[in-house]
Structure prediction request, 184 residues.
Amino acid sequence: MQEKELVFKILQCRPIAYLPDLAKALGSVKAGLFLSQLLYWMDKGADEDGWLYKTMEDLYEETGLTRWEQETARKQLRKLGVIEEKKKGVPARTYFKINIDKLIQVLQAFYSDCGKTTTKNVGIQQTCLRKSNNQECGNPTNLIVENPQTITEITTETTTENNNKETLPTYVGRGEDGQAILSK
Prediction:
């Protein structure tokens, strides 16, 4: 396919609305994209009770989210209470319903925290390092990592207490949902 034909084909694709603040409020770009697409269809294809049927294939064609990305996004949205799902029919079809009240709560919490947390840790380097060179999946990706060099260093640390400064949280790790866990 010629380059110009390829560009023309891409330009014929239907763009979808993506709301970055929605993704930030939900804690996931994929959840934000998935929910943005459901919001688009709610006034076009939902039944009188607000339930919408979209296949995984439809959502892939519309958003580019793979099956696994859709499942992760749905899990995040269910965890937050922003969407409900039900199966009905034979064969069973998955229907979605947006919990507008819960979505409003999530957005209000996000906007009330805006400015408080977004600039708080700017410029502060991550203070947590992995204690092990072993990866969670087992085998290291680099053979050099299997036999790491050890460096012995003697340091002296001086700590002063300053009650006027706010104690900033430190990065502890990631939870099951992939969100950062910070210490208080």
